[in-house]
């Protein structure tokens, strides 16, 4: 009798496991069973990063097989872009306008949607700042030369004085002041945008050099968050672990520019 009960219990457990395995292979059936309607299941976890007249959208792929592509749509404007995988860049955006984005998936039968993802975070595309020679660049320090000074091999005696060059001589007027850039979004490996460039400038100016020459070096900061940026950020986090890492229960930097690091950087002169 006890043996029969044991066997019955085992068969019941196996039946439940088999049932859930079946459901995991039929995402559209599960979607419909919970009243979510029919259609291609959309991607999730959309994260938007602003650029110059564009935004790059990363996301988690749709569950289930047979997905051949994705369509990302802006709001406002309903500007669309397509791609086979994450990330997808939407161009033709208006600088200064704030956008969010949704995405739909397309299956091998050619059906797109109609189910759309939840909206992404809001971002505002901006044109890169390109100051004229002799103008004042926020955040300037002698250790972090201006781009045109690096290119022209200028020698600066002190902020506000004459900067001599092999090509030109430029008189700086006024006083160079530090206008603090405030970071408003989290950043991670693979992202791009002005915030990434400002982060590289901050790290370089504070001695955590992204690169000693070429892209990412002082005066040649880029808008791409690559491995060099991550390594420099980890070094910065480790140097300020009490303020950045300890409140999160961490002891080693992660290279993720999250709320704790962002708050510390925003409060650092």
Describe the structure.
This protein has helices spanning 2-24, 27-33, 147-152, 194-205, 227-239, 241-244, 259-267; strands spanning 44-50, 54-60, 67-75, 80-83, 88-91, 100-107, 155-156, 162-164, 169-171. It is α+β, with helices and mostly antiparallel strands. The chain has three domains: 31-127, Immunoglobulins (Immunoglobulin-like, Sandwich); 135-177, no CATH class; 180-267, PGBD-like superfamily/PGBD (Muramoyl-pentapeptide Carboxypeptidase, domain 1, Orthogonal Bundle). The strands form three sheets. The protein has a three-stranded antiparallel sheet, with no helix packed on it. Strands 4-3-6 form a three-stranded antiparallel sheet, with no helix packed on it. A three-stranded antiparallel sheet has the order 7-8-9, with no helix packed on it. A hairpin with a 3-residue loop joins strand 1 and strand 2. The longest helix is centred in the N-terminal third of the chain and has 23 residues, at 2-24. It is globular. The termini are far apart. 26% of the residues are buried.
**Structural class computed from helices and strand pairing:** alpha+beta
Radius of gyration: 26 Å
Helix content: 25-40%
Strand content: 15-25%
Instruction: List unreliable stretches of 5+ residues.
Output: 32-37, 131-178
CATH architecture of the largest domain: Sandwich
Total helix count?
A: 7
Q: Which sheet architecture does the biggest sheet show?
A: 3 strands, antiparallel
What is the class of the largest domain in the CATH system?
Mainly Beta
For the termini, the CA-CA separation is 77 Å
CATH topology title of the largest domain:
Immunoglobulin-like
**Average pLDDT score:** 77
Number of strands: 9
**What sort of overall outline do the alpha carbons produce when their principal axes are compared?**
globular
Number of spatially distinct domains: 3
**Going across the major beta sheet, what is the strand order?**
1-2-5
> How would you spell out the order of helices and strands?
HHEEEEEEHEEEHHHH
Within CATH, the superfamily of the largest domain carries the name: Immunoglobulins
